[in-house]
């Protein structure tokens, strides 16, 4: 879970540059989200912790399974939102 959440904060910082330059009022409305801190120090601690763990074994498998479950949740949520908007998702 931490990998997904902290990684998404770093990704948000990349998107923040485009957001700051946008003239679109809907895009500008996301200011509160883009103003959240990037949590860079926390990300570095997590990466160091993960690097210290074995790459194989039950803990590694659980981390992968958890990440896959969260990504699947995001994907299903996106598909539901697209359907709600009447947009057909690409294959």
TrEMBL record:
InterPro entries: Haem_Oase-like_multi-hlx. It comes from the Bacteria. SUPFAM superfamilies: Heme oxygenase-like. This is Heme oxygenase.
